[in-house]
């Protein structure tokens, strides 16, 4: 890979000094970031035992809030973490935090729920007796433009996505070690981020986003069996279906990925981020987003605008 090309991550945001002074929600308190702390006995810190959601605020509306809550509540139920509040309680906490920061647009939030503070520094979940720890970090956040101009360089890595009976990739858990190892391996290969395969060697996902290719006018992504059930992934699939763009959730190999006309990543932060190269092989004949990626970027923007208008009209 060309070492002279500036490296990116899929979460590169424009520098914003205001983020040094944000207020953070910690279990009902709103604290300056320098005072926002959790215990060293917290299950999230000690064991990665917690779940989180990344969401974006557009004109006062948390985009696709219900989808994010479905995933969070499903994950917490599956691992017996009692969030201690319902969806409305979470929305109120988000609204309170946004108001304390004077934020309404171009905001990214990380909502974290852990099993809470442990009595002793051991693994057993029974030792977490305090009730959950809930933290909301909101930052002023705009993806850097260069991400969309240059695209991301991926490297296929030895670290794979596992079977659901090890640690189901659908858990947006605090422990992201599987993804972090993948990302480190990609960096060692001189790329920006990792392209991860499934246990059968089919192309699955990247360490932080879902992965799509475009081949001969059709959009392909993995079956979804070994990757995060991304909210943006599903929106892109739905948009393809409602706009007569052929879309397939299927097994495919690096052979098809290398020969793709376009490739892009999806995630709440970056929406659809173009992929420039995989394992040093340039994808497509264009720079930045290819024509179908651009079309999907436009459709997704319109979808967000409609969703935000609809939610704001319900509020008023
Ligand atoms: C590993 C992984 N894949 C994909 C995604 C994208 O999901 P979403 O579109 O819901 O932001 C995330 C985001 O949390 C993730 O952690």
Automatic annotation (TrEMBL):
GO terms for biological process: amino acid biosynthetic process; folic acid biosynthetic process. It catalyses: L-valine + 2-oxoglutarate = 3-methyl-2-oxobutanoate + L-glutamate; 4-amino-4-deoxychorismate = 4-aminobenzoate + pyruvate + H(+); L-isoleucine + 2-oxoglutarate = (S)-3-methyl-2-oxopentanoate + L-glutamate; L-leucine + 2-oxoglutarate = 4-methyl-2-oxopentanoate + L-glutamate. One of its GO terms (molecular function) is branched-chain-amino-acid transaminase activity. Pfam families: Aminotran_4. Pathway: Amino-acid biosynthesis; L-leucine biosynthesis; L-leucine from 3-methyl-2-oxobutanoate: step 4/4; Amino-acid biosynthesis; L-valine biosynthesis; L-valine from pyruvate: step 4/4; Cofactor biosynthesis; tetrahydrofolate biosynthesis; 4-aminobenzoate from chorismate: step 2/2; Amino-acid biosynthesis; L-isoleucine biosynthesis; L-isoleucine from 2-oxobutanoate: step 4/4. Its cofactor is pyridoxal 5'-phosphate. Its EC number is 2.6.1.42, 4.1.3.38. It comes from the Bacteria. Keywords: Aminotransferase, Folate biosynthesis, Pyridoxal phosphate, Transferase. PANTHER family: AMINO-ACID AMINOTRANSFERASE, AMINODEOXYCHORISMATE LYASE. Involved in the biosynthesis of p-aminobenzoate (PABA), a precursor of tetrahydrofolate. Converts 4-amino-4-deoxychorismate into 4-aminobenzoate (PABA) and pyruvate. Acts on leucine, isoleucine and valine. Belongs to the class-IV pyridoxal-phosphate-dependent aminotransferase family. This is Aminodeoxychorismate lyase.
């Amino acid at each position: 890979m060309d070492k002279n090309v500036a490296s990116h991550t899929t979460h590169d945001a424009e520098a914003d000094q205001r983020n040094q002074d944000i207020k953070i929600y910690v279990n009902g308190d709103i604290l300056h970031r320098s005072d926002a702390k959790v215990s060293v006995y917290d299950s999230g810190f000690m064991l990665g035992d917690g779940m989180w959601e990344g969401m974006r605020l557009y004109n006062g509306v948390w985009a696709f809030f219900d989808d994010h809550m479905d995933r969070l509540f499903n994950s917490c139920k599956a691992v017996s973490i009692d969030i201690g509040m319902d969806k409305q309680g979470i929305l109120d906490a988000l609204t309170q935090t946004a108001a304390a920061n004077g934020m309404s647009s171009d905001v990214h939030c990380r909502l974290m729920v852990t099993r809470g503070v442990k009595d002793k520094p051991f693994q057993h979940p029974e030792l977490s007796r305090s009730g959950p720890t809930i933290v909301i970090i909101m930052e002023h956040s705009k993806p850097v433009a260069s991400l969309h101009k240059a695209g991301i360089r991926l490297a296929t890595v030895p670290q794979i996505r596992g079977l659901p009976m090890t640690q189901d990739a659908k858990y947006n858990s605090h422990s992201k070690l599987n993804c972090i190892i993948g990302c480190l391996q990609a960096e060692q290969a001189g790329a920006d981020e990792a392209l991860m395969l499934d246990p059968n060697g089919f192309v699955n996902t990247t360490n932080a986003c879902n992965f799509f290719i475009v081949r001969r006018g059709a959009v392909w992504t993995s079956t979804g069996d070994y990757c995060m059930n991304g909210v943006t992934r599903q929106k892109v699939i739905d948009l393809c279906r409602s706009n007569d763009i052929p879309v397939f959730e299927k097994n495919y190999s690096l052979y098809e990925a290398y020969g793709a006309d376009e490739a892009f990543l999806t995630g709440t932060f970056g929406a659809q981020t173009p992929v420039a190269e995989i394992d040093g092989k340039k994808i497509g004949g264009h720079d930045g987003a290819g024509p179908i990626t651009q079309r999907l970027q436009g459709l997704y923007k319109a979808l967000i605008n409609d969703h935000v208008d609809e939610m704001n009209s319900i509020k008023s």
